[in-house]
Design a protein that fits this description.
The structure holds 2 protein chains of 2 kinds.
Chain A lengths: L7 H24 L18 H8 L4 H31 L5 H13 L2 H15 L5 H26 L3 H8 L4 H30 L4 H4 L6 H10 L4 H26 L11
Chain B lengths: L11 H11 L1 H31 L2 E2 L6 E2 L5 H5 L3 H34 L4 H15 L2 H12 L4 H9 L2 H9 L12 H25 L3 H9 L4 H30 L3 H4 L7 H9 L5 H24 L7
Antiparallel strand pairs in B: 1-2
The chains are: A mainly alpha, B mainly alpha.
């Protein structure tokens, strides 16, 4: 008879696999405190807090941080509007081209980022569009739409159409129904989608290198430091900031949507 | 007197609601137009621009892009050095996919069949957090770990397993002064970064395997190994293929990891990046970017035949 308890081997490999996914991140934290700034010597010869101060004083970190926050905020807002509209349309009816539209929404994250990036770069080249904050936003909003869309569409699928009809029967017009019935029900799913879109945009580097030109977002700054390191622990301090800026939204998104069949994050 | 069944319109919003009610397609059109325009113009437009650029060529003397239709740029892809890049990338993508499938299986299987209650949530978050947390930070973590003076060397010398690392580094094709400059390091980081993309669809497929089937298999006298080979594995296959679409496609296009960890031999993504940047050869970069699209289209066609899309 088959016992319904996992074998020891399965337990060890499963938990080992999870540890493999998580342990490497810890070294980012450890190396932010090392006193050795030229190599990645392990164990660190000494521990210090000074790199947090050094990072704070470095003038080259702040402009990329602002740019990343700005781009992520604008791209998230655009993606939330467009993604919600797309989800609303998809949940309403079967219409001609529905499957094609859903493929079109998914395509920007289904194809490797280098293709999206190179495509935008080609288009900017052909149309002589100079690089600016907006060229970065253009790319980010495009691949963030699907994140918001996934969350919104899953929630809409769960909403019964009856509450919309009830609202209409009680005399609400379409805008009142949207404001007082649909939005409160969708709210947490949209917020979760927005959080994830923000995290994705804040951290994006592959598409961004093609659409940024000479500008530097925080991930591009990090990439430059990785290729040509100087004051290595400072990079770790920034890495912790980037990690926190993506980690918190994901956790919040998880708690906003947990319990449903549509828990956030499946769509990356 | 009873109240009228239809209330009179109180304003523009009410009248518009009436219009939407009489013509549901109008509302649909209003909803669908902005996202359709955005994706159609920005995304499909850009993909078209990519294709267009790939049919241009670059003047070898002036370095200026000649905007005339030609297949010359595509012909350049078939030069030995460029074929090398394509082959190297495909082999790496295949190896990464295989390793991810093997590593992902126990995690997905445990999460799907045995994890209950808080453990279920722990496994879910345990896979989701690495999936979403910063890509660059994860790559950087591995640069720290694989460095010659880093933690892996320290652990190996502490446990007397340094010969293992030296052994890997002496295999032809994987040479390097440390794992962080060896193609094996590139492989390791690829596997680490894309592993969650394999676990999730695999877990989804395994969750759909009914318990009764496993019981039936046991009742009919199958051993654990036989049940695994003849029942679980075939039913998990669509999930494995769905996951492999991600790991394969993502490895094909990545250019950050080979730039940071490895011996800086070129992959498709890196070639695209360098050609459009320092070399300024946008047509050839565009042609290179078309290669993963073609490979993925072939891969997707094969996967579709194997029924992988039911598990997405």
């Amino acid at each position: 008879m088959r016992s319904d308890r996992p074998s020891l081997l399965l337990k060890i490999t499963a938990i080992g696999g999870l540890l493999f996914l998580h342990l490497p991140i810890l070294f980012i934290f450890l190396y932010a405190f090392t006193t050795e700034e030229r190599t990645y010597q392990f164990p660190p010869p000494g521990l210090t807090l000074k790199w947090f101060g050094v990072a704070w004083e470095r003038p080259d970190i702040w402009p990329p941080l602002y740019l990343s926050l700005k781009v992520a905020a604008i791209a998230t807002l655009m993606a939330m509007v467009l993604g919600t509209l797309a989800a609303a349309a998809m949940s309403r009816a079967r219409f001609f081209g529905r499957d094609q539209l859903s493929l079109l929404i998914i395509l920007p994250i289904a194809l490797p980022g280098v293709i999206t990036g190179m495509s935008l770069r080609s288009a900017f080249g052909i149309m002589d569009i100079p690089f600016s904050t907006w060229t970065i936003v253009l790319g980010h909003a495009t691949f963030c739409i699907v994140i918001v869309y996934n969350n919104a569409v899953a929630r809409m699928r769960r909403l019964s159409g009856g509450i919309m009809e009830a609202s209409a029967d009680l005399g609400a017009n379409a805008f009142q129904t949207f404001r007082y019935v649909l939005l409160p029900n969708l709210g947490s799913a949209l917020l979760a989608g927005g959080m994830l879109a923000f995290a994705l945009s804040f951290d994006e580097v592959i598409v961004t290198t093609f659409t940024a030109g000479q500008q530097s977002t925080l991930p591009i700054w990090m990439l430059n430091e990785l290729v040509r390191p100087r004051q290595r622990p400072v990079t770790n301090v920034v890495a912790i900031v980037v990690f926190a800026a993506t980690f918190m939204p994901i956790l919040i998104a998880y708690y906003l949507t947990r319990g449903g069949s549509e828990t956030a994050g499946m769509g990356k | 007197m009873s109240a009228p069944a239809i209330l009179p319109a109180r304003g523009a919003a009410d009248r518009l609601t009436g219009v939407f009610w009489r013509r549901p397609n109008l509302l649909l059109l209003i909803l669908v137009t902005p996202p359709l325009l955005w994706l159609g113009v920005v995304y499909l437009g850009s993909l078209a621009a990519l294709l267009l650029q790939s049919f241009y060529s670059i003047d070898e003397f002036s370095g200026v892009v000649k905007e005339e239709f030609t297949l010359k740029t595509y012909a350049e892809l078939f030069r030995a050095q460029n074929l090398d890049i394509i082959l190297r990338t495909v082999v790496m993508a295949a190896a990464v996919t295989l390793a991810c499938a093997i590593l992902a299986f126990p995690i997905a299987y445990f999460a799907a069949r045995y994890a209950r209650g808080p453990w279920k949530a722990a496994f879910y978050l345990g896979v989701m957090l690495p999936l979403w947390s910063s890509y660059l930070v994860k790559v950087y973590a591995w640069k720290l770990i694989l460095a010659k003076e880093g933690v892996l060397t320290w652990a190996a010398s502490g446990t007397g397993t340094g010969f293992l690392i030296d052994g890997i580094l002496s295999i032809p094709g994987l040479e390097g002064s440390s794992l962080s400059t060896s193609p094996f390091g590139t492989f390791l980081v690829f596997v680490y970064i894309w592993l969650p993309y394999m676990i999730l669809p695999m877990q989804a497929a395994l969750e759909r395997v009914p318990n009764s089937m496993l019981e039936a298999s046991a009742d009919l006298g199958a051993t654990r190994g036989q049940t695994f080979r003849t029942v679980i594995l075939p039913l998990a296959m669509p999930g494995v293929i769905a996951g492999s679409i991600f790991t394969f496609s993502l490895t094909l296009g990545d250019y950050i990891i080979p730039q940071i960890v490895g011996n800086s031999s070129r992959f498709i993504g890196l070639a695209v990046y360098q050609l459009q940047g320092t070399a300024g050869n946008i047509p050839l970069a565009a042609a290179f970017a078309v290669v993963p699209i073609v490979i993925m289209l072939i891969y997707l066609t094969l996967a579709k035949r194997a029924g992988a899309f039911d598990a997405l």
